[in-house]
Amino acid sequence: MDVKEVVREKYGTAARRVLAGTGLPADCCGQTSCCEGSATASCDPITSGLYDETQVGQIPGQALKASLGCGNPTALAELKVGETVLDLGSGGGIDVLLSAKRVGPTGKAYGLDMTDEMLALARENQRNAGVENVEFLKGEIETIPLPDNSVDVVISNCVINLSGDKDRVLREAFRVLRPGGRLAVSDVVVRGDVPPEIRRNMELWVGCIAGALRDYDYIAKLAKSGFDSIDIEPTRVYSLDDARQFLASAGIDADAVAPEIEGRFISAFIRAVKPAAKECCGPACCS
To answer: Is the full-model pTM beyond 0.85?
Structure first.
């Protein structure tokens, strides 16, 4: 199975549903999948309730309906006026538009997505929002189409877990960040050990085609890519009851596996910093 193509198709389908105005599937609650849900009118505990009323009032309704994330990176990223922000896997553009408002007209927000339908939806949402300091780029998060040292903050909302090459994604994020720049992403993370069969089923639930990393593996990969000041802050812990219906549909007795999954899958806010450039201390280091 080509995970990238499956993700492209699922997210393309989600965008087409929003553009067509069909909204959620009738059996959303039975499917309990972030690929089928939206941030509004959804019983899905992963994608619902991520944005407060103030934020909802700042963006077009279609941007919210196309939100398939697991967190709210713009609320926690501490964006500053004048900064340049890049959203990896920007989807319908909700986090890009919110970031653009936070950095103001002297800043800029880029959105990067590989799905034509999501890019079309995002650009329509940008027009409807009347936001000018935004640019949506087509590309893959493993090969970011921006130059070195060009952005201040990299954000992402439950997308890095979908990549089959997370090391490359993190290296690319490090490359495009300016010295002293920040990574501030929401993602699905696993705490502790989970049996492989149960893990695969839970990952399908929490991230569509997720490949959620263990928390200590995430930290190790960030450090290997060059980041420091790494921190993982849980923002939502998924309970057995959250996943009960999905597990039952997969033929798994939720109560029997409760000790192995309760509290293990979380949404988290992941922070890291690209070290600042060292000051030159003499002719030798500047040569």
So the answer is: no
